[in-house]
Amino acid sequence: MAILTAPVATRCRPRRRATRRSTFYGNLRPQLYRLIESESVDPVRNPYAPGAGQRPPELTGRDRELRQFEVVLERVAHGRPERSMILTGLRGVGKTVLLNTFRSMAIQRLWGTGKIEARPDQSIRRPVASALHMAVRELAPRHRAPDRIEGFLGVLKAFAQAETEPVKGKAVPRRWNPGIDVPAARGRADSGDLEIDLTELFVDAASVATDLGVGIALFVDEMQDIPADDVSALCAACHELSQSGGPLIVVGAGLPHLPAVLSASKSYSERLFRYARIDRLDRSAADLALLAPAEREGVTFTPDALDALYQAADGYPYFVQAYGKVAWDIAPETPISADDIKVAAPEAEGELAVGFFGSRYERATPAERDYMRAMASLGDDPVPTSTVAEELGRKPSSLSPARDGLIKKGLIYSAERGLVAFTVPHFGHFLRSQPV
């Protein structure tokens, strides 16, 4: 009897499950029903990652920059002099992602690394001290040279504590303990003059790296926001390094006007750094950024869908990820089609309008918003400041506060003398689509 009843029970169970399942699904909207029934496009397995500085699942279109940095690492490892490196580009092109990738490459070579994000209202003294402290901490466990490292940490502590702040018209030391458990050294990197101190600190850090047979890399994001005096100090310290050939490099990333900021600080800066302009992806790289992660999940796109996605994203890496993510979530099955993109595009644009464009627009004052709307009405290319003034019916000098405020907030930049442009791609289109 037991042998006969088992098959009967097995045949009955699927019917009961199927009945409950069809009843449950019958209450859902048809498109949600198709999504759940299909195992090809699962939102949980969505590979796309739009986010600030978040590495995409497939880093494409940056082979040239990766090879350049590989050469820098190799040359420094062989004791060859090498310039520090600067990445520039609009927001959303992947500068921070590339900066983090460079750092990972240095870590794989067992270098000491540290990273800072510059702020317009903050001296780089504390952030650089913390970053170099981190770099030395990475090196210390791998090298038996405690006296050498402790000696440098004493200099680093003195450098950190030499920061001053204005109090009643006088410069007084800031009370700050950087958490370095050694006595502060005296007479080295502690003068209070950042240019002198930073140069001495970099030279000592490079000397430690030479003794340990490794390199040290300092990564600086949003480099255009470093205060003017600090930019001058950083350039001077890098200049000293370039002459001594020490194994310490600075890798910076910033907006397109960063080279002009550096050049205004030190006339030799154009020869001091290796510059790499990061731009939108070409068609093949954008397609690969979509196809490679999707195909690892058993999903693909039709050629028409890829056409539509490239037209919408315009090759900008952040937009590629944003549109790809929404298209994946909406598509009921593979391959993802052009019709799926038509449905997904308005939702992706709505998310960008709130998180990518809108959050920046809200930071502007009413006068600054008027200035940006006037820029947008003139097109998407860099526009003369005089033309913006004409559009607003104002004198150019009266608009200087609004223009300078937008530059400080990182919403526009001076493409060249007398010209301004948006730092965010498609920002003009976004403004033109908004009600006045």
TrEMBL record:
Residues 210-376 form the Cytochrome c domain. It comes from the Bacteria. Residues 44-63 are annotated as: Disordered. GO terms for molecular function: ATP binding. Pfam families: AAA_16. Coiled coil: none annotated. Keywords: ATP-binding, Heme, Iron, Metal-binding, Nucleotide-binding. InterPro entries: AAA_16 (IPR041664), Cyt_c-like_dom (IPR009056), P-loop_NTPase (IPR027417). This is ATP-binding protein.
